[in-house]
Amino acid sequence: FYAGAYAYGKSEKRTEIVDGRARKSYGHGKPFGTWEVLLRDHHEGYIDWSEFERNQSLIAVNTFAKKGGIKSGRGGQALLAGLLTCGRCGRRLSVSYRGRPSHPYYQCKSINQMLAKPRCMTFGASRIDPAIGKEILSAVTPMATEAAMEADRAHRDNLEERHRMMELDLQQARYEASLAERRYAACDPDNRLIAAQLEKSWESALRRVETCEAALTQARQIDAGIPIPDFAGIATDLEAAWSAPNVDTRCRQQLLRTLVTDIVADVDEEQREVILTIHWKGGQHSQLRIRKPNPGEHGQKTPDAALAVMRSMATRWSDADIAATLNRMGMQTGQGKTWTARRVGALRTVHKIHGYRSAEKNGEWLTLTEAAKKLGVTAHRVRRLIKEGVLPTEQVVPDAPHQIRAADLEKDEV
User: Fold this and answer.
1) Could you tell me if 202 and 184 are in contact, meaning their C-beta atoms sit under 8 angstroms apart?
2) DSSP readout, 194-256?
3) Is residue 336 assigned to a domain?
4) DSSP state of 337
5) I need a labelling partner for 364 at 20 to 30 A (CA). Which of 158, 234, 375, 380 fits?
6) Helices (H) and strands (E) in the chain, counts
């Protein structure tokens, strides 16, 4: 009704044989094209018929959990939300978030919720989304130059059209000023009331001419000072345009839906690969295989160069000195943060990088207690030998635990 159409026969009755008797049921909706009566432009509507059809198609594809339904791009962190179909059960993959900060995951859990069966598949979006993004860029690259030329032409036409409209406005203002002048000149001077009113109209028309001239001059100066966007440069560097910080996920999702109809996902557990079959607009298909990370593997790994620096400095410098060195070298943690003594210590514990040479129990270096036990004396006596300079030791920092070389215990002075 709100689209200006009259419709009749949108539902039908059905007859079924139940227990040997005919049973009728009413209110079954019929497809849009099978309605008995549909009179368009029957009355004045709130929207036109084309907008109504566009709304209905959008509502249809946004229908959740229906066959063929694809949710529109609404933003979020997952690029492929609503586009992935399970290659095993045919249902839509949903998006879940895990961790802090949250990371998106794609999973087929409908069969688990409905039939209590194991989930078909689960995989993260950290590798899938960039791979699809590269496929999109490779697909649109051949048309990028043509689109850049069209965008440049549209930009120039827009500027010319705006200037032309302002010039027409100025021309109209000048005509009205000339008309007001002729009316004032044709007025009887003795009729002072009419003459005063015509003079005000003339002055108002002249002020409008001055305003239009100033606006046109200012617009030309501003447009001349603003550099024309480098559309050709954007065409040659689509990846930078795709990854620009001012381009949100919703914009990327909408661009993806203009090129892709559906993506069928499957997981090869033996090869540890995610298999994506992309159905492009127009009927073309392409397949993409992406390695699935092993359990415990993630993309926030500490750089190997930072671990190498840590291993070389651990037994001679404190965690604070190591953190300061890594920061001066411009290295960051796996999460892109700067280093602190606490983070260095935690990472040393995870990778079993000992901070003292005596921690390596190979007999070359000993702690103060181990040295006292080997000499058969108390730790207080060994401390006196160190204080008197008889027994040499090493310390990472002052007041840190003493590290004693085992060979030094065999000296005659000791």
Assistant:
1) yes
2) HHHHHHHHHHHHHHHHHHHHHHHHHHHHHHHHSPPP-HHHHHHTHHHHHT-TTS-HHHHHHHH
3) yes
4) P
5) 380
6) 12, 13
Whether the CB-CB separation of 106 and 95 falls below 8 Å is answered with: yes
Task: Work out the angle between the directed axes of helices 341-351 and 304-313 (0-180°, nearest 10).
Answer: 90
Domains in the chain, number: 4
Q: Are residues 40 and 89 in the same domain?
A: no
Cβ-contact 262, 85 below 8 angstroms: yes
Token code pair at residue 252: 């990327």
Whole-angstrom CA distances from 62 to 102, 391, 394 are 25, 79, 70
pLDDT in tens, 116-151: 888 888 888 888 999 998 888 888 777 766 777 777
Q: Are residues 89 and 144 in the same domain?
A: yes
Q: Are residues 197 and 326 in the same domain?
A: no
Q: What is the pLDDT of residues 74-112, one digit of tens each?
A: 778 888 888 888 988 888 888 888 877 788 999 988 888
d(CA 227, CA 208): 30
Q: pTM score, two decimals?
A: 0.50
Spatial separation of the C-alpha atoms in residues 222 and 312, rounded to whole Å: 59
